[in-house]
Amino acid sequence: MERTLAVVKPDGVRRGLIGEIIRRFEKAGLKIVALKMLKPTEELAANNYPDTDEWFKKVGERSSKTFASIGMDIKKKFGTDDPILIGKTIKGWLVRFLSSGNVVAMVLEGNRAADNVRRLVGETDPLMAQAGTIRGDLSIDNVVLGNSSNRPMVNVVHASGNAEEAKQEIKTWFNDSEILEYNRANEDEFYRAW
Questions:
Q1: In-domain check, residue 162
Q2: Rounded to whole angstroms, how far apart are CA atoms 133 and 127?
Q3: What is the rounded distance in angstroms from the CA atom of residue 134 to the CA atom of residue 108?
Q4: Apex 72 CA angle, 68 and 73, nearest 5
Q5: 149: how many CB neighbours lie within 10 A of its CB?
Q6: Is residue 107 part of a domain?
Q7: Is 159:5 a contact under the CB 8 Å cutoff?
Q8: Which domain holds residue 34?
Q9: Cβ neighbours of residue 27 under 8 Å, at least 6 residues apart?
Q10: Residue 188, SS3?
């Protein structure tokens, strides 16, 4: 079984959404194998996000595309249209926000866990997330509103982007002794061959 990381962000904790978010993961058949509440340091928060030009570019391009889609000039906001520089600015905002309050970090296990958690949380931009997803139901922020206020958008939960990212993120948040092995009573029902 695959493992992935999910973190209820400070906005989700402050709004009392921890139980609702966990309920959705467990209801979908994912098993929690590690769980803790903490206030991340800036160093921990920074280590959660990649520090590569590829990642910065992806984040910057996503913001540029969103700004362009509503006719706003991203260069006016960021002083540049270089996606890498925009991505670095946004990472700084993400780190500041993630370390601004308590979070709940968890390791989830299940069939294609990373893909399933991403499906459950929905699009990164809550405005684009479908109803029925965690972000679609529980958040109303968006990229432009956040970036216009010199902050990242708030979307209640972080989820690893893929299985490879999950391996690194899990190591950032948990040591091996904090990740437990056990069987859920209904685990066979999810994976039984009929």
A1: yes
A2: 11
A3: 16
A4: 90
A5: 11
A6: yes
A7: yes
A8: 2-181
A9: none
A10: helix
Helix locations, 1-140, DSSP H: 10-14, 18-27, 42-48, 53-69, 74-78, 83-98, 113-121, 134-138
From the list 9, 31, 135, 158, the catalytic residue is 158
Domain presence at residue 193: no
Sorted by sequence, the CB contacts under 8 Å of residue 184 that are 6+ apart come out as 31
Could you tell me the pTM of the whole model? 0.90
Place of tokens 């500041």: 96
CA torsion angle for 48, 49, 50, 51 (degrees, to 10)? -110
Question: Per residue of the chain (194 residues), what is the pLDDT tens digit?
Answer: 899 999 999 999 999 999 999 999 999 999 999 999 999 999 999 999 989 999 999 999 988 988 888 888 889 889 999 999 999 999 999 999 999 999 999 999 999 999 999 999 999 888 889 999 999 999 988 888 887 788 888 999 999 999 999 999 999 999 999 999 998 887 777 666 65
**DSSP designation for 109:** E
| Residue whose token pair is 């962000």 | 9
Residue 48 maps to a domain: yes
Q: What is the CATH number of the domain that holds 177?
A: 3.30.70.141
Residue 114: both structure tokens together: 């990373």
Q: How many domains does the chain have?
A: 1
Whole-number pLDDT of residue 193: 60
Contact indicator for 140, 134 with CB cutoff of 8 Å: no
Catalytic annotation present for 3: no
